[in-house]
Specification:
The chain contains one helix and no strands. The chain is mainly alpha-helical. The longest helix has 80 residues. The termini are far apart. The model has no long low-confidence stretch (mean pLDDT 94).
Length: 86
């Protein structure tokens, strides 16, 4: 065989190896990015649950505070009724 044929074969083989290596590296990068995205989604879900829980607790405390203010107003009104100086 002529030398130029061997050169063409070697160039084509190197090109094929380069494409294979590029494909493998690309797939590894995609796997890493998918894993990172999964971790970020888990973290976002955890923070969302925590924020929802805190919001629920805040609403409960606001309701309790409102009820306590209402009760305090009733007691204050009763005290005003009983106080002979008012």
């Amino acid at each position: 065989m002529a030398t130029w044929i061997w050169i063409v074969i070697a160039v084509l083989a190197a090109f094929a190896v380069g494409i294979a290596v590029f494909g493998i590296l690309r797939e590894k990068r995609l796997v890493r990015r998918r894993q990172q995205a999964s971790r970020l989604r888990e973290e976002a879900a955890k923070r969302t649950r925590r924020a929802e829980e805190r919001g629920r607790i805040a609403n409960e405390q606001a309701q309790q505070a409102h009820a306590e203010r209402k009760e305090a107003a009733k007691i204050g009104a009763r005290a005003d009724q009983l106080d002979p100086d008012r």
